[in-house]
Structure formats: C-alpha cells, structure tokens
Design goal:
The chain has three helices and three strands; from the N terminus they run βββααα. With 116 residues, it is of the alpha+beta class. The chain has a three-stranded mixed beta sheet, with no helix packed on it. Bound molecules: zinc ion. The site of zinc ion has 7 residues, from loops.
C-alpha cells in the first residue's frame, strides 16, 4: 500500500441504508450512509419496469407537459379568433371596389339630375 495517500479515518463497518429499507456494510470514511437506490431495488437488478422517482421529477415533468398543452390550446384558440377577425375585416381591394361603385352611383345621379 502506498504511504500518505489513503484516508486515516477509514472504517471497515460503514452501514449503508437505502430508501427501500435494504442495508449492507461496506468500507468508507463515514460511519453511516443514506442512499436513494441500491442493487436490491434498482430496476436493472430487479428486472421490473417501474419509475424510480425520489425527487418528484416525473410529477414535475407531467405538470410541465400539462402547462404546455394548456398554452398550446390557448395559442390555437387565439389564432382561430384572429383568423375569424381577418375574415370579417374588408380587404383593400373590396374597399376600393366599394368606393368606385359609390362614385359611379353619384356620377349617374348627377347625370340624371342634369338631364331633368
Ligand atoms: Zn434499495
């Protein structure tokens, strides 16, 4: 063993406790350790398919997805409303045609007044 590189407080009876309740003894510089997952409960070793969600990440993600869906629905309804307003608004061409027909009607009225 190389001198001067190993911790002086090394203990051979460090107790590791998992959140699933499984405990085992190993070597370490601490007397006890707390871990979130171990070989007794990790899906890779157990072979079962399940979420390991200690910090609420799945819930957080699902909440985020719900917010995104709500925002997308709001944006879709907004664009529909805008499209509807666009249909209601007159186009520039329509305004010009209306003005021309008004002028034409006025001219015809002037002509009929002048004839009489
Ligand atoms: Zn475990």
């Amino acid at each position: 063993m190389k001198q001067g590189i190993h911790p002086s407080n090394w203990q051979h009876d460090c107790v590791v406790t998992c959140s699933c309740g499984h405990t085992f003894v190993t070597g370490g510089v601490k007397k006890a350790m707390q871990v979130d997952i171990c070989s007794a409960c990790h899906p890779f070793f157990t072979g079962e398919m399940r979420f390991v969600d200690r910090q609420g990440r799945v819930d957080k993600f699902q909440k985020k997805m719900q917010l995104a869906a709500a925002a997308a629905a709001a944006a879709a309804s907004k664009t529909k409303k805008a499209a509807k307003e666009k249909v209601d608004a007159k186009s520039y061409k329509q305004i010009l045609v209306d003005q021309q027909s008004e002028l034409k009607a006025k001219k015809e009225a002037d002509v009929t007044v002048a004839e009489n």
